Amino acid sequence: MKLRVGIVGLGDAWESRHRPALRALSDRFEIRAFCAEVAHKAEIAAKEFNASPLDGFRSLAAREDVDAVLMLAPAWYGPAPILAACDAGKAIYCSAALDIEPRHASRIKERVEASGVAFMAEFPRRHAPATLRLKELIATRLGRPQLLFCHERLRKEETGPNGTRRYQPFSSATRELMELADWCRYVVDQEPTSVMGVEHDTDGNDKDYQMLSLDFSPEDRPGRGPLAQISCGRYLPRSWRDAISFRAPSALQVVCERGAAFVDLPSQVIWFDEAGQHIESLESERPVGEQLLTQFHRAVTSLVRKISDLEDAYRALHVVLAAQTSCQEGRRVPLDF
């Protein structure tokens, strides 16, 4: 079954992830309409895919020839396209689920649940070939995760057209922490029970480093279960290009019961056990974008409704907000989902 879709927003990953994936999956997806903050970009994309460029996301969601809405950038309209899709009864694929402001999160979650539509949030780290292979190794060779380390160096915030800053309810560092927290939850395969946060602010105006320690221990025995240390920062000026990329750490380091693994996204895993070092390159695996959209197609065309990703996005937001509370109050904050 071919799914007829309308696309709202053409974000940073359009050229590298979404466009190639939709081309490769042309037997499963037919693009009928585009709507983007920059009308010219929508017109170019619409011409390439023989679709219609539209001025508004509401008219796109209301079209009878659109079965699902792919929200591929947060842009200036925030979560409004999600609500429009819910009103129209259209399934939703959302690459901006982690960009929903805290004050809107509960309402969006309730509206999606009440509408009865399928909802899939885009978590590219989860579905990277290296992550899927890591999960296999944990189940078969390495054993249960004990310690996880993630660190991401970020560039300074960029501006959009005409020098305006793109819509972002959170700083890029906060959003990155949300995605990394979700990634660690996915790898450990259980819920954290508490979090501690640390922040560094050089000039009093902008945080240049944030860190959180995510504890998966039983509530009555903190520090006895899996522990994830997650951090990111913009402490290097954009002009220091060589310094930003110098000796970048692995995207994820995992110490398990019977070995350790170093993950470099999207497709390399180097792991160690008693037999020594093992290097696996997974370049031949299907790209992340294709895997994500294939799952969405399956979710929409099957009889099993999928909305769990929305709950996962909501929990990632809850974790990072709790880490901010921890930093402000100087204490460990319990997590109650």
UniProtKB/TrEMBL annotation:
Record has Oxidoreductase as a keyword: yes
Domain Gfo/Idh/MocA-like oxidoreductase N-terminal: 3-122
Molecular-function annotations in GO: inositol 2-dehydrogenase (NAD+) activity; nucleotide binding
Broad enzyme group: oxidoreductase
Keywords for the protein's UniProt record, in alphabetical order: Oxidoreductase
E.C. number(s) listed in UniProt: 1.1.1.18
Keyword presence, Oxidoreductase: yes
Sequence similarity: Belongs to the Gfo/Idh/MocA family.
Designated name of the protein: Inositol 2-dehydrogenase/D-chiro-inositol 3-dehydrogenase
Source lineage: Bacteria, Pseudomonadati, Planctomycetota, Planctomycetia, Pirellulales
